[in-house]
């Protein structure tokens, strides 16, 4: 039977106390790093994913490790509707979403997703930088509690099909897949087509199997989702100058310090600028690439389409008032 000296006992108590303190300290450090979930429906090959990963690294670095972020691409945490709901439930913290989907929760923010709302890219950029966008974003935040931080250029949306579309009459009765938000139906309905909502990750199969005859998306998306493999024509209607909004969910935003909110704003704004530049560059290069793949890239008379759609801008589908519309049209004039 061994007898430990008082000094020996004191040492072992001290060691135990030190380990406990270290353990508690370690647990505290683990607890302090909050892991955020950033969800989107785009492919890993697209700029949106690349800059989301960049943003995750930047946030971890600029917050000194207080926040880490996992990026979940390609609808892995759900369709566009699901991830929008997830923001308010707190099951996701950050998303990219189309203005048309955000417009379901707060109508005026959908204005940027209406067909032929913008004259060109410069008009879109002027809106992205405008007080009007800030006011609309604030309205959305007041309505939902979620916080729009940046507008990313998504590209000009064009119609792909298996028969040439040269003018509005060519779309009469055409069964065209659109995302499941009312704003996407404005142009097809104005020209007598049959817009059919189908989830993004099911579109390739729907085209391949002839469930729909056509779809519409920007050139970089057409390539990323390989829609050119199952469609012969890319008709350059440019009917929507489209955007993705980077939004942080209210439950998460309310936990952020003022300092961290500023970091999130800066990082996601920078990421949006990088997305925008990458998409512009890609749009410039892709016409030739699609032609090399054997697709026919078809120039159309956009004015004919614009004229068909303009009456709908302040019609029944409008989820904004006329003053907001007039202010948007005046930007950059």
How would you describe this protein?
- By secondary structure, the protein is an alpha/beta fold.
- Strand 5, helix 7 and strand 6 form a beta-alpha-beta unit.
- The termini are far apart.
The CATH topology is D-Maltodextrin-Binding Protein, domain 2
As a whole number of angstroms, the C-alpha radius of gyration is: 25 Å
Strand content bin:
15-25%
Percentage of residues assigned to helices: 40-55%
- The count of helical stretches stands at 13
What is the CATH homology-level superfamily?
Bacterial extracellular solute-binding protein, family 7
Architecture (CATH level 2) name:
3-Layer(aba) Sandwich
Write down the overall mean pLDDT: 92
Oligomerization state: single chain
Backbone structural class? alpha/beta
Q: Quick one: overall form?
A: globular
Overall CATH class: Alpha Beta
**Total of domains:** 1
Family: Belongs to the bacterial solute-binding protein 7 family.
InterPro entries: DctP_fam (IPR018389), TRAP_DctP (IPR004682), TRAP_DctP_sf (IPR038404)
Protein name: ABC transporter substrate-binding protein
Subcellular location: Cell envelope
């Amino acid at each position: 039977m061994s007898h430990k000296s008082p000094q020996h006992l004191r040492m072992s108590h001290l060691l135990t106390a030190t380990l406990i303190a270290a353990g508690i300290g370690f647990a505290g450090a683990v607890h302090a790093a909050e892991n955020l979930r950033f969800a989107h429906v785009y492919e890993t090959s697209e700029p949106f994913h690349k800059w989301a990963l960049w943003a995750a690294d930047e946030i971890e670095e600029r917050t000194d490790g207080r926040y880490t972020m996992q990026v979940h691409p390609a609808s892995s945490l759900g369709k566009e509707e699901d991830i929008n709901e997830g923001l308010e439930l707190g099951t996701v913290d950050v998303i990219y979403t189309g203005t048309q989907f955000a417009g379901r929760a707060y109508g005026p923010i959908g204005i940027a997703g209406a067909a032929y709302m913008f004259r060109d890219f410069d008009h879109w950029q002027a809106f992205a930088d405008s007080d009007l966008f800030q006011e609309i974003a604030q309205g959305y935040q007041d309505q939902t509690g979620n916080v729009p931080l940046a507008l990313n250029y998504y590209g000009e949306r064009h119609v792909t099909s298996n028969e040439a579309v040269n003018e509005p009459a060519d779309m009469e009765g055409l069964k065209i897949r659109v995302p499941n938000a009312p704003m996407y139906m404005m142009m097809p309905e104005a020209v007598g087509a049959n817009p059919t909502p189908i989830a993004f990750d099911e579109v390739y199969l729907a085209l391949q199997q002839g469930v729909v005859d056509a779809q519409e998306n920007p050139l970089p998306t057409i390539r990323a989702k390989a829609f050119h493999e199952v469609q012969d024509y890319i008709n350059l209607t440019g009917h929507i100058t489209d955007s993705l909004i980077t939004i942080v969910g209210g439950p998460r935003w309310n936990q952020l310090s003022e300092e961290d909110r500023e970091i999130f704003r800066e990082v996601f704004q920078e990421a949006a600028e990088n997305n925008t530049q990458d998409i512009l560059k890609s749009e410039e290069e892709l016409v030739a690439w699609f032609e090399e793949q054997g697709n026919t890239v078809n120039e159309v008379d956009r004015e004919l389409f614009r004229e068909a759609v303009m009456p709908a801008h302040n019609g029944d589908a409008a989820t904004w008032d006329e003053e907001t519309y007039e202010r948007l049209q005046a930007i950059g004039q």
